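Quick one: examine this chain and its C-alpha cells and tell me how the chain folds. Here goes:
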Amino acid sequence: MKKILVVIFTFVFTFLSCLGMNYLMKDVVAISSKSNHNRVNLVIDAGHGGIDAGTIGIDQSNEKEINLSIALMLYDFAMVSGISSFLVRDGDYLVYRENDDRSRSDLYNRMDYINSIENSTLISIHQNHFDDESQWGMQVWYSPNDDNSKIIADNILKVTKSNLQKDNTRLNKRSDSSYYLLYKAKVPSVMVECGFMSNRDENKKLQDTKYQKQLAYSIMLGFSDYLVKEL
C-alpha cells in the first residue's frame, strides 16, 4: 500500500510540476522555431570559479556561487524553450582543459570556447560591488563590436525592471577594454551584473534560490524578445 501511495504522489507531483513549468514558459515557447531556424547557439558564462571567488559580498559570500546558480537556471530555461545552449562552466572551477598551461588566463580559454561555437551569442553572468552600499539593481554591459549586443542588453534590463526591479534607474553601458570578453568578442555579447553584493538587502536576495530563478527567467525573456523581433 505504501509503495502505491508513493507512486501516486510521485505522479501527481511530476504532473503539477510540468503544469507549473508550462505556465512559466508560456511567454517564450514562440521562440523555439525561430531560434532553430536561425541556429542560434546561446553560450552562458558563469563568471569566475575555482580559486577565483569574484566579488565578496557584505556577508562574505562568494560571487562565483551565485553566478553559477543563475547560469544553470538560465541554461535550463533556454533548453526548455528550444534554444541550443552551452555552459562555459557547470561547476566550481576555472576554465582549463587537462594539461593546459595554467599561466594562461582562463579568460582566454573562455574566449576560445565562445569562438569555437558557430553562430553563438554570449550571456555572461556576474554580480556587482561598490563602495557606496546603497547602490543596487541590475546593469548590463554590452560588446562594442556587434550592434545586436546593445539590443540584447536593453531587452534584458527592460524585462528585469518590469518583473523584479521596478525602481531600478540604472542604465546599460558599452564595454571598454577592462571587460576582456566583451571587448574582444566577435559575436553578440553581454555581461549581466545581476545586482550589488555590497548592498545588504540585495545581497541577501541574490543568494535566494527563488530570486535567482526569477532573475534567470527575466534574462531568458529579454533574450527571447531579441530572437523574436530581431532575427
